[in-house]
Specification:
2 copies of one chain form a homodimer.
Chain A: H1 2-14, H2 27-32, E1 39-42, E2 47-52, E3 61-67, H3 74-85, E4 93-97, E5 102-106, H4 160-173, E6 183-187, E7 190-194, E8 200-202, E9 208-211, E10 225-228, E11 242-248, H5 251-254, E12 273-280, E13 290-293, H6 298-308, E14 331-333
Antiparallel strand pairs in A: 1-13, 2-3, 2-12, 3-11, 4-5, 4-12, 5-10, 6-7, 7-8, 9-10, 9-11, 13-14
Helix pairs in contact in A: 1-6
Chain lengths: 335, 335
């Protein structure tokens, strides 16, 4: 934790507007002051753009999703790319809104063989064992962006000793430990749980996008997707595949009327919200560039520390820790 | 944790419909099977009933709040009782809806001295030190419902040894430990964080109701209230007074359009949702009786265990733990 504080201190020293007697910067102010090099552009090919039917006042409702980076959930993501390229979701609908849980969309007739929309050819069938992708830290150099202890908010370091020391610090400070896992962190802008040195799995935080499925061994194709709109339902981790996160427009989903049927399904077709189109970002004209604050940057470390220890004027008593889902990864549009 | 499992096993044995070869009951099924004696009636005098203006289709929108039990936040709750009795909120509005955070209501002109609605006489001014109410476990017998280790999901026991043993079990199982605190539990149906043996404070879970305030030393009167509608903002714990929780109708707040101004405030008056009335339950005709599942009951222990370890058919891999805010306290209407 000492290093985190140092990182924050270094950042403060670098910002002339924040002299010693000025208020301590809020997490938002730290993000606003982050240097350009700490931001990572998201390729348009990794974006999924959903346009709902306009609202009752005719205002457009666009939701932008960033797909998860390799090596996670790539089979489902491949299916999603196929479905989007085939314009398969056009004319489907949001069928389920369950309060403090999820918004879910897809073919409303999926369970009715006579009416169900045919899926495009070439979709991959995924297996249960792929819910938690193995990601061996010891061989992480094989990835083009190697996993290091930096992903745990620790000083950069790649030796076993450094990683172990880092882990010790985290366990002592309780900073990233929670009832679900001992070691949590971020990888390429996404929240992950890391198990004892050999596995990682994505976390169901607010705004994360997952793959609806029937009872096991069904794993879902990716044609039915949901977004978390409540307190992180972490019991779904490793039980359902996560494929991305909403980076803009989640309010168009979270503010939809709740369904009054079981599990929040709408009871009548007219209650559903129509989906006008879902496209891969590369196919959408005039889409702005989005960037996320590198979760391996010093700015992010300072931001995460400030989220865990609010020292800005409103706060009387800093919490001394933060839930991984209470450290949302900052995203911005590039002007 | 062994005792929890035993409690669950005992419950199973007591339910003839759930023989050994039947699926393991879900948390909802455990709640449905809870005996009548495990439910606690909430006095109408502890309810706050908010009627919003009907929605665009003319449907009524009622939100029912249970006020927090003594000894917590009683000064603010006293103010709230005064404000409700004076019908002070009638004609005020929901002024702020911030996605994944809070819905807030009160006098929209509160910050404009010329237009602000006068507060009723007799409101108490609370101090910062009252945010976290001291609740000494050693003297807890003074309360009419003594605090025992049962509040930590442990076998009943009141000696220091029993409490220490209980705490050990919790720490080992990680069950109630989180980045914010080592020991969390429930007291009279509300989620609480317990510090090392002498203090407790309420937790900002989804649906909890808190008191809006300006910068410290202002502590808020209770005239401006908010409800959590996103991932638990635990950094607010001990910084803002919590006074209750929504037990019915939270969807009428969580599905409101998000405000587009700073902090989710609406930018124009017409965007606000009018509050028709807020009354203490005792003043509302025809109000049903509400009961919550006693958080000291064996049914609740089995339910909490099932939430932490989903073994029902949908789940492949139980989580092995649960965030305190992922164990919402069940509430029902009595027929």
């Amino acid at each position: 934790m000492k290093k985190l504080l140092l990182a924050a201190a270094a950042l403060l020293a670098a910002m002339p507007s924040l002299a010693e007697d000025k208020p301590v910067p809020s997490p938002g102010e730290i993000v606003a002051a982050a240097p350009k090099g700490d931001w990572v552009a998201i390729p348009a090919s990794d974006l999924l753009v959903m346009d709902l039917a306009p609202d009752t006042k005719g205002k457009p409702r666009r939701v932008v999703i960033q797909l998860m980076p390799p090596p996670f959930s790539q089979g489902w993501i491949g299916n999603i790319r196929l479905l989007a390229a085939a314009h398969w979701w056009d004319g489907t609908a949001v069928n389920r809104v369950q309060d403090n849980y999820v918004v879910q969309w897809g073919d409303p007739n999926a369970d009715d063989k006579a009416k169900a929309k045919a899926l495009p050819a070439g979709l991959e069938v995924m297996s249960e064992s792929q819910y938690a992708t193995k990601m061996t830290l010891e061989t992480s150099r094989a990835l083009d962006d190697p996993i290091t202890s930096a992903h745990f908010f620790c000083p950069h370091g790649t030796s076993t000793e450094e990683r172990n020391a880092c882990r010790e610090v985290i366990l002592k400070t309780r900073g990233r430990r929670d009832p679900y896992n001992d070691l949590n962190g971020f990888y390429r802008g996404f929240p992950f749980a890391f198990s004892t040195a050999t596995n990682a799995w994505p976390i169901h935080c607010y705004g994360m996008v997952g793959v609806g499925r029937d009872l096991s061994p069904n794993t879902g194709s990716g044609a039915e997707l949901y977004v978390v709109i409540g307190h992180a339902p972490r019991h779904l981790d490793r039980n359902i595949a996560l494929v991305g996160r909403v980076i803009e427009g989640v309010e168009h989903l979270s503010s939809l009327p709740r369904g009054t049927g079981g599990l929040g399904f709408y009871e009548t077709p007219k209650e559903r919200t129509k989906i006008r189109s879902i496209r891969l970002g590369a196919e959408v004209k005039g889409l702005p560039t989005y960037e996320y604050l590198s979760t391996e940057s010093q700015s992010f470390a300072a931001y995460a520390d400030a989220r865990a220890n609010r020292r800005d004027a409103f706060f009387i008593r800093p919490a001394g820790g933060a839930d991984i889902c209470n450290i949302p990864v900052p995203v911005r549009r590039v002007k």
